[in-house]
Amino acid sequence: MKTDEAAKIYRSIFRKNIPGMVKQRFYNSSLEIESTVPECELINYRTIIKKIADLESVEYASRVLNSNPLLKKKFQLMIYLAECLPENYSIFINEKKGVLKAYFFLLLIPFNSLYKLTKGIFILKIKMRWIKK
Amino acid sequence: MDKEIIIIGSGASGVSAALGFEKRGIIPTIIDVGKKMDNTTSIHGNLYDFRKNNDLYDLLIGDNLEGVSNILRGTSLPPKLTAPMNNYIVSDSEELSPVKSENFGAIQSFAIGGLAAGWGAGLYRYNNDDLKKLPLSSVELESFYDILSSEIGISGSNDDLTSFFGNDNTLLPPLPLSKKSDYLYEKYLRKKRMANKNGVFLGHPRLGVLSRDHAERKMCDFSNFETWLPDIPWVYNPAQTLSRLIKEKKVKYKNGILIESWRRENGMIILEGRDISDGSSFSTKAEKLIIAAGTLNTTKIVLRSKKDIKSKLNLLDNPLLQIPLIFPSFIGTPIDKSAFGMTNLNLIYKPGHEGNTLQGSIIELTSPPRSLFYEGFPVSAALNIKLIKMVSPSLMALFLFFPSSAEEAGTIKLNGNNELEIAQKDYMIDRKPVKKIVRTLMKMGAWSHPLIIKQSMPGYAIHYAGTIPMKRRTSSDYESSMDGELHNEPGIYIADGSPFSNISSKNLSFTIMANAMRIADRISAKITK
To answer: What ipTM goes with this model?
Structure first.
C-alpha cells in the first residue's frame, strides 16, 4: 500500500517515477501527518489511494470542494520534497524564454481544468459512494 | 548580581534601549532567552546556481520538518520563519509562552534579536500624521531616528514617498530594483499623473538592507537567499548591534533566562524566572527595569506580576491583505536570478477625501521556494507545477497594511494556567480603496483580481501593539507614562510596541525602536542628574 501511495502521488503530479530519496523522505514525513488526522479521514484517504487511478482529478476536486484535507496535504508535501532535488530543478525553474509556449499553455488550461474538475467531482460524489458500499 | 538597570529582551526595542543608555555611558544588562541558530552554514553564491547542484532538503525541509510545518502542523508562519535555518527565531515559543486563540495567529520569538532576526527590515519614520492619536510628536523621536539610522544603515531615496516617509539625508542609495519592479516603476513614472489622481504613489522603500558596505557589514549580493539563510549580514538584525555593544563592553548580556514576573522587596525590584537549560528558578535584583520583551510577552510579564487573570487588555495588529500581482509581459520569461528577494517598492494610497492612508510593500517573490505557490493557481496538480514554472517569474505580491486603533482591537488576557488568551474578530476591511489600487496598478502593467486577494489571518502582520497605552496622565494599572513608566510601578518601564494604542498603516518597528531609545535616554538623564 505504502509503495503505491508515494509512487502514485508523484506520478500524478510529475508524470514520472518517484526518485528513491523522495519516496523515503515522503514516508518519514507522512507519519507525522497521519498521526494528527482522525481515523475516518485516514480510512477515506487510504480508500482513495487504493481504488482511484486518477488522483490528480480527485485532489483538484477536493481543493475546490474543500474536502479530503489529508490528500491535499500529501500532495503539498510531495511537491516540497520533489523541489529539494537538483535533478528536478528544471521542473520548477524557467531559464529559457518561452512566451508563446506559455500563452498557448494558458489557453489550454480552462479546458483541461474543466475536464479534471468534472471527473474529480464525479469520482468523489458518485464513484466513492459506490466503492464504499 | 548587583542591583542595576535590566532590560528584558534582545529584540529591536531591547537593543535600541541599550543604545539609549550607551549615549550617557550607562551599562545596562540585557536578560533574555536568546535562542541561537543550531547550525551555521557557509553557503555562498547565488540561490539558483546552488539549487542546480545541491539537495535542498536541509535548507527547505529540515530534520524536524520545520519547512513544511504549515502543512503538517497547521501553523501559519511566513516562509522566512519556516525555513529550517531560520526556524530558531520562533522555535519553542509555544512551550515558553503558550497562547490560546481561535482566530489570532500569534507569532512570538525568544531568539537573540527577537522577531527582527526574521523581519522584512522596513524602517519608516512616523510623522505627526501617523502619531496624531498618540501623545508623542515626531520631534521627540527625530534625534533617535537619526542615531538608529546611522547604526543600521538604511537604504532608500527621497522620492514621491518623501512626504509620507520624511526627508532623510542619512539614507544609503536605494537597492537596485528587480526587473519587474523596474518595469512597474518606469510605468509609474510615465503615468504618474493618473496614479496620483487615484491616490496611488510609488517609491523606493526604506529598508535596513545595505546597498553598500556599512560598519563592517557587507552590502547586498542579490543572491536570493533572503528567505533561506539566517543572519544575512546586509539585512539588519538587532543581534548585530548587541554583538557590537557586548564587544565594546557597553552592555552586559545574560541569555538562557526566561523572566516571568517581578515583585517588590524592600523597595527593590526582584525579577523572577527560570533558567531554560534545566528549569531551575532564577532571580535577580534591579533598580530600574525596562521591559522590552515584545508586546505579547511584555503583557504577560505585567499581568503575571500583578497576578491578574481577569483584566482584558486591547491588542492591535495591522490588518493585512495579500494581493498577488501578475505581470503579463513576464509570463514565460526566465526567473530573475539576481533580484533582491524582499520589498522592492512601497505603495502609498492617500485618498483625496476623508479616509485612511494605506501603505503597501511590493515584494519580489524570487527568493521563496516555488512549492509555496502550489494551490495559488486554481488548477490541477500537474498544471499547477507547469504554471509555477511559467507564471511564477511574472509574480510579485503587494502586502497592503491597514491602520488599527482601539476600536478594532482584539483582547488579550492571562488565564489561570499562565497562558495568554487572545480574542480577535475578523477584520472588516473596506475593499473600495483596494479596487482603486488594483485598477491603477493594472493601468501600469500589473494585473490582479479581487478573487485572488487573500485577507491574512489576524496576527499575521506581526505588528503587535497597544496593550499598555502611553498616556500623558496615567490612571490605570495598565497604562504607561510619557517616560514609559508603568502606572504605580516606579522604576518599571515599558519600551516595546505595548504603549502604542493606535498604529497607522506604516510599519511601527522603527518607531518602537526610537521610542525605546527615547525612554532609555530619559532614564539615563534622570540617573546622571
So the answer is: 0.93
